[in-house]
Amino acid sequence: MDLNLTETQRLVRQTARTFAQERVLPGARERDRKELFPAELLRELAGLGLMGVNVPAAYGGAEAGAVAYALAMMEMAAACASTAVAMAVTNMCAELICAFGSEEQKRTHVSRLVSGDAVAGAFALSEPQCGSDAAGLTTTAARRGGDWVLNGSKQWITSGAHAGVMVVWARTGAPGSRGLSAFIVEGGTRGLLVGPPEDKLGLRASNTVPLVFEDCVLPGSALLGGEGEGFKLAMMALDGGRIGIASQACGVTRAALEATVRYVRDRQAFGKHLAQFQAVRFMLANIKTELSAAEALTLRAAWCKEHQRSFTQEASMAKLFASEMANRACDKAVQLHGGYGYTDEFPVERYLRDARVQTIYEGTSEIQRVVIAREVLRAAS
Ligand SMILES: Cc1cc2nc3c(=O)[nH]c(=O)nc-3n(C[C@H](O)[C@H](O)[C@H](O)COP(=O)(O)OP(=O)(O)OC[C@H]3O[C@@H](n4cnc5c(N)ncnc54)[C@H](O)[C@@H]3O)c2cc1C
Questions:
Q1: 99-112 as b/e, with b when 16 or more CB fall inside 10 Å?
Q2: Mean pLDDT taken over the chain
Q3: Does the beta carbon of 357 sit less than 6 angstroms from any atom of ligand 1?
Q4: Atom from ligand 1 closest to the CA of residue 158
Q5: Strand 147-158 relative to strand 208-218: parallel, antiparallel, unpaired?
Q6: pLDDT more than 90, % of the chain
Q7: Active site residue 258
Q8: Chain centre to alpha carbon of residue 33
Q9: Which DSSP helix (H) or strand (E) runs through 356?
């Protein structure tokens, strides 16, 4: 892996950093408290090319690659994890449609996603009764003439109330992973009902909703990829998505570390600044070391993806390590703020709440370990 960033990667990172610090960070606390979805910020992100970082220019993307995407995601998450997750899912949907869509689907839907016209993308795989076991999903898509008719429920759909373009998984065949297909659904389609937003521990400015499909009629052209290919599409999208969540974890941790460094240099106890105590310094050292390891794993996974190498295991390792690291680090950041860390006077309580979901969504830590172990055993056989 070449650790030197290219000019393009530096530029994307700088663009994301400037926007994140100047436009996204200032309102992050209020959006979190009031559960305000950052629709306007997402439009501005699209204007900067950050809704299609790894999408070909032919479809309106920045065509800057997977490493640039990871760097941009780290910057956005350091400012606001809720904005970052909406950006992540939109990029994921745009890339998925680019990889498997027909020319018409790419021209219509990818352009809307990356331009901001669709506000956000949504990825609708999980259901009330199955998340980790995605092959068990029960939403159905049945043929009716040239159309498809969807019936069923989805759960936990990020940006689901705002997304103009969604990728939705449904069963078109027999039980198990081979009976699944993916569909592109436009927001506001008749028969698509959006439920009330979840009242969450963290990511409170992110919109998370259940969706219900009640005889929702889609044109034949809504099928994404081949019939029965849905599970493969989902797993491929999640491989890339896990790099996004690993990046998000790195960004949140970096922000937590920076806030903590500021605090321990300022706060005094026993006649000294906290930063002078060795126990405090050792905590900072551990956070920085683990963060650097997580960043390296994340950029390595992104590099493998960018260079068309297999990256399933790399993405899972990055997501597993970075998300668990973020939880340890944000917990220590709160600890080092003492009682103030437990209030919203300082941002570390938000970082801890935002980090918590990272070991759960886009595959729990347990599922990442299942994937990594499978790859380890496969390589050894
Ligand atoms: C804020 C938020 C946003 C989300 N956004 C989206 C989204 O946009 N789109 C979407 O489709 N989904 C989304 N999800 C859903 C998320 O991906 C699932 O919650 C996650 O995959 C886990 O599924 P589950 O909640 O059904 O838990 P379950 O699958 O029921 O798992 C419960 C527990 O059992 C463990 N477990 C399950 N199977 C195994 C196994 N084989 N071995 C060991 N342990 C196991 C899990 O690791 C977990 O600890 C979101 C979730 C949240 C909280």
A1: ebbeeebbebbbbb
A2: 98
A3: yes
A4: 8
A5: antiparallel
A6: 99
A7: no
A8: 21
A9: helix 348-356
Average of per-residue pLDDT across 175-188: 98
* Residues 200-214: tens digit of each pLDDT: 999 999 999 999 999
> Hey, CA dihedral for 293, 296, 297, 298, is it positive or negative?
positive
The CB of 208 under 6 Å from ligand 1? The reply is yes
- Any idea which residue has 């969706």 for tokens? 211
Report how far residue 182's alpha carbon sits from residue 173's, in angstroms, rounded to the nearest whole number. 12
Domains plus CATH for the chain? 7-120 (1.10.540.10), 123-228 (2.40.110.10), 231-380 (1.20.140.10)
Cβ–ligand 1 contact at 131 (below 6 Å): yes
The answer, yes or no, to whether residue 193 has pLDDT greater than 80, is yes
Per residue in 108-138, pLDDT tens? 999 999 999 999 999 999 999 999 999 999 9
pLDDT at residue 190 in the model = 98
Residues 197 and 210: their CA atoms lie apart, in Å, by: 8
